[in-house]
Each structure stands twice: as structure tokens, then as C-alpha cells.
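Quick one: C-alpha cells for this chain, please?
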Amino acid sequence: MGMSLGGYTTALWASIDDQLAFACAIIPAVSMAELMWRHGEDSPSRRDAVDAGVSRDLLVDVFRVHTPTTRSARLTPDRLTIIAGRGDRITPPEQAERLHAHWGGTLHWFPGGHLAQVGRADALRAVRRQLDALGLTRP
């Protein structure tokens, strides 16, 4: 399990480790290129980068080598889950939706976001039930 950048790491780990029993990406960053482009929209650094020839497509190409959606998960969909916040402005919902479209598995939503994770407990309880059903928790 990992959250935010840890969700990115979780998604990558699930694509390389055959011995993982389960993976849960929580409010995951999925495309660093998209996030950098989106969050830099009004920044002087982005204007300088654009002036130097940097584009969204170039960033996508540069980050492709470690973008989770360019690799297949090594786990079956019943062992993959994502928790995402509908109100997240740091890793917006489309990041989780992109990973879900790639992975399959389960996607649990909560109404909050990165900073105010209102309602996340319900999603975590659902993950606990999923772990119990797979026999991955202790009695």
C-alpha cells in the first residue's frame, strides 16, 4: 500500500514483483508528466520550459520508462485495488481512473481529497474486507 507518490511506487512495484500478494494504490500519482504539466500551468518555469521546446508530449515520452500504465501488473485484478478522492486537486480523479482502466481491479472512491481525506475510512474498510476474502489477514 502506498499513498500519493507511494501510490505511484505501489503501481510500479505491482508491475515488477511476482511475489506480491496484493497492491493498493491510494490517491495515486500515475502520470508524472501530466501532473507536472497540469500543476505548472501558470508558472514562469513552465513558460521558460515551453520557450525551450519542452511540451507535454515530450514530458510523456521522458517519463514513459517508469509510468505505471506502460507496464502490465503482475497480479490478478482481484489483488489490485485503488482508493481515490473525488475532490483531490493534487492527484486528480483522472489519475486513479487511468490506473483503473489499465489495471482493472477494484476502485474505491471517497468524497475528500489529498489534504482532507474525508470518507477514506469507508474505502479502507472495503480494502480490509477484500484482504480478508483473499485470506491475507490474520484472524
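Residues 49 and 55 are 8 Å apart (CA to CA).
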